[in-house]
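Why do we care about 3D structure at all? Because function follows from shape, and shape follows, mostly, from sequence. That is the central idea of this module. The next example makes it concrete: a single protein chain, its amino acid sequence, and then its structure expressed as tokens.
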Amino acid sequence: MFEEIARCAETPTLIINKGTIRQKYQEFFDKFAGAKIYYALKANPHPEIVKLLQDCGCGFEISSQGELELLLGLKIPSGKIISGNPVKELSSIKLAHTRGVELFVFDSYAELEKLSQAASGSKVCVRLAVSNEGSEWPLSKKFGVEIEEAVELLVNAKELGLMPYGIAFHVGSQCTYAEAWAKAIEKSRVVWELAEDRGVRLHLLNVGGGFPIKYIKPVPSIAEIARVTMDSVRKNFPKDIELVVTPGRALVGEAGTLVTTVIAKAARDGEKWLYLNVGVFNGLMETIGGIKYPLATAENHPKTSEGKDKISKWTLAGPSCDSFDVISTKVELPEMDIGDRIYIMSAGAYTTAYASQFDGFPIPRTYFVD
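And the structure:
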């Protein structure tokens, strides 16, 4: 099935392997024993992925009203949904509260005011700023507060009629430093203890996402990160703690292969250029942040066939008329012709989710295989 779609489907096309997603979910379920797993929907909100993970028993973390409406439209129970974005529109809070979402993340006094107004009595978790060391996409500058402010926010939440319930953090996307989770957990313990001294008893720790997948460079396994994380939780928190994990990329990233076609080629200042019908704007936005995808051709993709010699170094660019649309430089590929297909692996996350139709070029169509 994969081979047929890869060779025959109109490109650009994203092929998602359902079996890989099931396998990844089971790995999180097993290695983070006892934790509740919530898929970070932003990674890839395709309805088929939602249905698949729902069947596995997974919950969902949302960031917006649009994501909430998608889940509600797919009959996901509100008890399986948490609101993880510390920045929310008032209308989004009202709808989530009205439809039964009980847990919200926040990191400012302004957000507390909105929550007290639109979701009185809800459970709230403060977002703690933690080191994003080893992360390809650091997040801490935009979100999170330090220890003292976190404690004051939790106390204030109680005074406003909310239920201060826990602590959330995020070590940054595609984090390759397993100890980052342990350090963040140790910092969370300080908030937990200081809050208890102020009369606020917490129950939940959300260790976020950020789990890395295999691109070009080696990364720690989910098992290794889970071992470090669970050891630190056991060392720093009571046995009855509610533990939440919110993977996104790690559940769907390696399940996806983006199939694209060479639409033009050129030689410029001694460099060889290949132009593909997918680029930064319609599927490969993460390349601007440094993500480098594994590539293969139809001749050497592990699921099609083998062979092809002469390797050259190419600059890969997308199809738009914007010079910003450069995917990668010094990429090693065989000699390519117009019409040849290139496979971009580990492309299941943040590809179609980020994509636009800038310049009139299409968002890749998604196919699913088992």
